[in-house]
Design goal:
This protein is α/β, with parallel strands linked by helices. It is built from 5 helices and 7 strands. It has one domain: 3-Layer(aba) Sandwich (Rossmann fold), CATH 3.40.50.1240. The two termini are about 20 Å apart.
Length: about 160
């Protein structure tokens, strides 16, 4: 079975205030960021599905990713992808995933999730900087079961992609 790539991305820049944290929407800059990252993802992988946190800013980012694939990639809401989500629960969920995906989430979950999935420590400051896009690939015969396949930094000139073996 071929490895299934899972791209993990943070939502774009969000407005600082709203009625509640889940209601915060993307700023113009955040929408531009999401479009740039989506174009980068499109160069490296075509996901079967996009899963986003139910928070407004993640849903908006997920729609932008879907639009980058001419809206042919469905967007689904995954409640466990909230900032306070349990990375071990997401890990167990990923084990049952039978297709390639983009996960649109938040910090601190992203940093913790990459540690659990691939044993790769991502400093909160690094992951919190929008635009570092890690992709993990399932390797059923290894420990951990996932490995960091590549990271893209679409805001670098030229775009930087690091492949890991």
């Amino acid at each position: 079975m071929a490895p299934k790539p899972v791209v993990v991305m943070r939502h774009g820049e969000a407005e600082p205030w709203a009625g509640s944290d889940p209601e915060r929407r993307l700023t113009k800059e955040g929408r531009d960021q999401a479009e740039a990252v989506s174009a980068s993802i499109r160069q490296w992988v075509t996901p079967d599905v996009i899963f986003a946190s139910p928070y407004a800013r993640a849903q908006e980012t997920g729609r932008i990713v879907s639009q980058a694939f001419d809206s042919l990639v469905p967007l689904e809401t995954l409640p466990m992808l909230t900032p306070e989500g349990d990375p071990r629960a997401v890990d167990r969920w990923c084990d049952s995933l039978d297709r390639s995906a983009v996960l649109v989430s938040h910090m601190p979950l992203i940093g913790h999730l990459l540690q659990v999935l691939a044993g790769h420590s991502m400093a909160v400051g690094t992951a919190n900087a929008f635009g570092l896009v890690p992709c993990v690939s399932e390797e059923r015969e290894t420990t951990p079961r996932w490995r960091l396949a590549w990271t893209a930094r679409p805001f670098c000139e030229p775009e930087v992609v690091e492949a890991f073996r």
